[in-house]
Amino acid sequence: MVAQRRRVSLHAMSAPTADASAHPALPAVIEPLDPAARARSIERVLVVTFGLNVAAAAVKLAAAWWTGSLALGAGGIDSLFDGAANVFGLVAIRLAARPPDSNHPYGHRKFETLVAVVIAMLLFVTCGRLAWTAVEAIPAVLAGTAGAVVTPLAILSPIAAFAFNWVAATYEGRMGRRLGSELLVSDAGHTRADAGVSLALVGGLAAVHAGYPLVDPLLSLAIAGVIARTGVEIARSTSEVLSDAAVFEPAVVAAMAAGVPGVAGTHKIRSRGPSDAASIDLHVQVDPALSIGEAHAIGHAVAAELRRGLAGVVDVVVHVEPDWSPPSARDRHRRDDEDDEAAGFAP
């Protein structure tokens, strides 16, 4: 499971448009679904992926029981973790789909991210257990008192598991980018790594069958390393969401806001949250001669433009303030004060 997070830069906004397949690390255009419809779509994807992951785990674990292979057992546990992640994901989606309330005014979307963190922690625990078992088995294998008994038929099990893994990863990754779900994209990354593990198992079992039993515990150690790497990648990317790392470069937001008629300048631009549920707040400077109603309308136009032009934005707060920097504005303000004094109003 590898969490994918985008940070939109001004260079990316000005670059030629490419399809999502050319940049698999970037989410495709997020479908404009309401939260309830999005949650139902993600749930369907997770149910299908769960079935494929359980099938892959069953094939590997059955072969591990039959042959006594530590590597097959580690690969089966890895696939079983994929299925468990799908179950956790279903729970997270139900929680994240809840509407905002008084305790969670920004909604419950970060529950998806929190579940990804829990999965990363479980991956680290599993990695440690697999590595310890493999290290314990190495002396016995070297002494010839233990080892896997691999037949040509057993080598077919990771090939079948690879097919299940690859179908699950491809489907889940495509739907995750389409729906803008960090959880689906993350889980697809882990399943794709699991497909690579299945291919490695084919070669490892063939080596054991050829008379190199030490390959089995060593391959189990390598699989534990893959699991650990996946956990590190999840922890790194989810920490960006939980620590409120910027989702958009301020220059991108400033450039879009500057295109709205009446905007004289912007500053104090901030963004945070998941890439498909981001929040932006900024200060917009307008002509001080404008009425409150006119300035307020410009603020609304800026918010609408940012929601339209930046995928995944769900909340925009615009602070409108007068721009005193241009000399013409200062002169106009001074003339207005003079007119007010002439009319009998206090300056």
Identify the overall geometry. elongated
- Under CATH at level 1, the class of the largest domain stands as Mainly Alpha
The CATH superfamily of the largest domain is: Cation efflux protein transmembrane domain
Output the helix-strand order: HHHHHHHHEEHEH
Largest sheet: 3 strands, mixed
Q: Return the structural class.
A: mainly alpha
Domain count: 2
Helix fraction, binned, reads: 55-70%
From the 3D coordinates, which CATH architecture of the largest domain would you assign? Answer: Up-down Bundle
Termini separation: 64 Å
Mean pLDDT: 78
Name the features.
single chain; 347 residues; mainly alpha; Alpha-lytic protease prodomain-like; Alpha-Beta Plaits; three-stranded mixed β-sheet; 3 strands; 65% helix; elongated
Can you give me a brief rundown of this structure?
With 347 residues, the chain is mainly alpha-helical.
Question: What this model shows, in words?
Answer:
With 347 residues, the protein is mostly helical. It has 2 domains: 10-241, Cation efflux protein transmembrane domain (Alpha-lytic protease prodomain-like), CATH 1.20.1510; 250-342, Alpha-Beta Plaits. Helix content is 65%, strand content 8%. It contains 10 helices and 3 strands, in the order ααααααααββαβα. Strands 1-2-3 form a 3-stranded mixed beta sheet, with helices on one face. Helix 4 (110-143) packs antiparallel against helix 7. The longest helix is centred in the middle third of the chain and has 34 residues, at 110-143. The radius of gyration is 28 Å and the shape is elongated. It starts with 9 loop residues before the first helix and ends in a 5-residue tail after the last helix. Mean pLDDT is 78; it is low at 10-31.
